[in-house]
Amino acid sequence: MKLAVTISLFLSLLFFNTLAQNTHKISGYVYKQGSREALSDINVYAAEKRVGTTTNADGYFSLSHPAQDSLLLTFSAVGYQTVTQLVSLKKSVTLTVYLPVGQLLREVVVHGSSKNNTSLQQMSRIEVPITKVRQIPALLGEKDVLKVLQLLPGVQKGSEGNAGIYVRGGGPDQNLILLDDAVVYNPSHLLGFFSAFNGDALEKVSLTKGGFPARFGGRLSSVIEAQMKEGSRDSLHGEAGIGLISSRLTLEGPLWRPKSDVPASSFLVSGRRTYFDVVSRPFLKSPETGESPARSYFYDLNAKLSFHLNANNKLTWSGFFGQDRFYNQRESNDTELDASIAWSNATSSLRWEHRFSERFSSNLSLLFSQYKLDVSNEEILDNNANEPPFQLRYQSGIRDFSLKYALNLVHNEKLQSRFGFQSTHHRFTPSAVVEQGNLQGSVLPSSSIEAIESGVYFEETWQPVARWQLNGGLRLSHYLVLNEDDAKNSQSTQYLRPEPRFSTTYWLPKSWALKASYALMNQYVHLLSNTGVGLPVDLWLPSTSYIKPQQSQQFVFGLAKDLNQAGILSGTTLTLEGYYKEMKNILSYAEGASFLSPDETVPNSSRQWEAISTAGRGRSYGGEALLQKENGRLSGWIGYTLSWTIWQFPELNGGRPFYPRYDRRHDISVVGIYKLRPRITLSATWVYGTGNALILPISRFSGYESRPPVVRENPSPLEILFGPGTNAKVYSERNTFRAEPYHRMDVSLRFYKRKRRHERTWEISAYNAYNRRNAFYYSVEGKLDRQDRHSRSVLYRYSVFPIVPSVSYSIKF
Predict the structure, then answer these.
(1) Alpha carbon distance 205, 309 (integer Å)
(2) What are the Cα distances from residue 778, in Å, to 175, 297, 593, 678?
């Protein structure tokens, strides 16, 4: 009954456009200057009348306004120069607008355009221009869009150098990461120190961390949308870069030019490869053999083809493939060890954009995503004994095929409707194969589970009066397991859940805006994550009859202010947000379990991952502040987050609540970019965060077991009777130890020079400029006291990065 009333209410809004009499329509398309690429999410605003809209995926916009002599329109977007145009309103007009790429390289903007930021953009949404990513200092000069997201309030950082994203108390699996609509499951390179996104191939990246529109589903905490840029339609262009550990090359240009007015089709190819395995070889040589045991490398490839079939139809294909490998080879007199960790991501997106009319368009997408992980280890204990080797083989992965269809209907500048559905076929392989030779071991057979996840949605954006804007919608999600083998459950496991969404904005006098939102989200895929330093050996698991879907409810309240004063505060925006989020059925390892510790009570089972996991609840709440400046020689932002995240699992910590590892009370980020000269830019970032919550032993002792004694030099009496002892540790309650606060400063200096046919940039940077030894992990170890010859426990702190200087060079042609 409630659903029927809601649908009737929104459909009744369709008749409001009949109230506008004696009006003229202003419509048109916005393109990127040079490449003629259609630009979405461009703000079209008439400040004097306080009306505006945004362009859709085809770059189309439409406004209706009472007849008058003229109206001044402003077209603006992050990373582009603002364009103003005087439009006559004596009759309806159609415009074609070209936006130049911004030469001042604006920073991350939370509320859209460079003017009136409180007016148009949805709540808790952040847009990241790729031009800004290139200006921010980064580790070893590798520009990383996910590292930029970590500099924003509400986004917690992982451990030192880690590319993990923790948004408002959620884990890495609770982020829906999309590359041209296709899901990327593990967006990391080089054991998590760099992200899988090549900035040369991206047009823009946006983060939504609250107030989720109904078209998004399947995750609890955030949506990260990465959009690949289209190739140039004018001429062949390229960009190349070389740094300390990697090089990259991008080529783009037209495929052919039609004789009609339809834009030319285009292509883009971008590749990147690290030579970290070669550079690190001299520093990792074994003193015994002279060999380099540990090596690591990654590469990735992006490609995109765009075809304009006619004025109303556009076909695009984009693909991404990336692979990492970390391997270790060591030889000694008695032992040979060969171990490797390899993982890869692959995505493919085929999209058909069709325009039925100027106000009505559709988007049909066929999507493919795949993530694979392979861990292998082989050790020969004694070459002379002809013993079978110790072997371990571990494989895990997830593969998706998706169909997505969306409809967008623009009734007028005050009312817009969206409808659509998506269906995804998942194939999970959360399994391991362990072979231990002549040692006692087990074999876990490879298995897979298939499931279908679907969702249908509608949403409405309505501005009933000048100061109010409402966005409401409903998503109905469905999940079905196709081949679950459960003797206790003869019926197929399936879930059907509604997900209401609502957000509102009220514009107060003097450029203030008050915003609020509510969203209920369901998540049917889970990441069983290792709580150590974050190697990519985590398990992607399906929801089953045993593992229930995750669910969250989030309330957000916000206040925004445009500081339009002249002088130093020109172009400055203040944003304040507070949130409260509850989460159910979040997943963790059971006490003492790991991805390579099979449960002996379930012998030879293909469902070991269910036995080693446990579900619980969580809540997160806090406040965020962002002060950002866009204009002038000095630009940047200051972000602050105050937050609490609490978990509770019946089978962990004795059922008592505890703080998860990445709970941080305080988090501060300061970003500054100063234009010393037209061709020289100095930039710096400083971050501070409360230390991670960790579990450490409070005492240690040696334990002994009955076995033949082992004689060594100066044995103890217990060793003479029972053999050498093994260390045993006693732990306190979970995560009661706080690591030291984390803080770091990065600086960079860029020299830019432009000639007739090419542009070149030199960059000199320093990561961790004041050489802060931040803790990477802690360990309690025994230390022998030479005076009384007794061992005592000592807490050791290990760090990874001292000051790391780097230099890089890039050229555009």
Answers:
(1) 27
(2) 28, 27, 20, 46
Instruction: List, in sequence order, every residue forming a beta bridge with 751; answer none if it has no partner.
Output: 680, 762
Q: How many helices (H) and strands (E) does the chain have?
A: 6, 46
Whether the Cβ atoms of residue 71 and residue 3 lie closer than 8 Å to each other: no
B/e letters for 512-550, b = 16+ CB within 10 Å, e = fewer, are ebebbbbbbbbbbbbbbbeeeebebbbbbbbbbebbbbb
- Give the tens place of pLDDT for each residue, 691-715: 888 888 777 666 655 555 544 455 5
Q: Which residues contact 577 (CB under 8 A, 6 or more apart)?
A: 123, 124, 153, 154, 210, 556, 557, 558, 559, 623, 624
Joined together, the tokens standing for residue 397 give 């992965």
Distance CA 436, CA 443 (A): 9
3-state secondary structure 448-463: CEEEEEEEEEEEEEEC
Cα within 13 Å of Cα(59), Cβ side:
19
Which of helix, strand or coil describes residue 140? helix
In this structure, are residues 338 and 390 in contact, taking their beta carbons and an 8 Å threshold? no
- Residue keyed to tokens 């217990």: 718
Asked if 109 contacts 78 with a C-beta cutoff of 8 angstroms, the reply is yes
CB atoms within 10 A of CB 717: 7
Residue 14 has pLDDT above 50, yes or no: no
Asked if 420 and 405 touch (Cβ cutoff 8 Å), the reply is yes
- This prediction has a pTM of 0.83
| Distances from the Cα of 496 to the Cα of 454, 478, 544, 549, angstroms | 10, 5, 13, 11
Residue 562 CB coordination number (10 Å): 19
Nearest to 437 by CA among 393, 394, 390, 392: 390
Q: Is 742 helix (H, G, I), strand (E, B) or coil?
A: strand
| DSSP 8-state assignment for residue 102 | P
Pick from 652, 734, 650, 746: which is nearest to 692 by CA? 734
Closest CA to 597 of 779, 378, 388, 442: 442
Pairing of strands 93-99, 23-32: parallel
* Candidate from 40-44, 143-147, 566-570 with smallest mean pLDDT: 566-570
d(CA 587, CA 590): 9
Q: Backbone phi, then psi, for 50, in 5-degree steps?
A: 55, 50
* Domains of the chain listed by start with CATH number: 2-99 (2.60.40.10), 125-695+806-812 (2.40.170.20)
First to last CA, the chain: 62
What DSSP assignment string belongs to 173-212?
Answer: GGEEEEETTEE-S--EEGGGTEES--GGGEEEEEEE-SS-
Instruction: Copy the structure tokens of residue 127.
Output: 């847009």
The answer on pLDDT for 332 being more than 60 is no
Distance, C-alpha 500 to centroid of its chain: 24
Question: Residues 458-475: what's their mean pLDDT?
Answer: 89
Name the pLDDT band for 335 (thresholds 50, 70, 90): very low
What tokens does 278 get? 């070669």
- C-alpha angle 433/436/439, rounded to 5°? 150
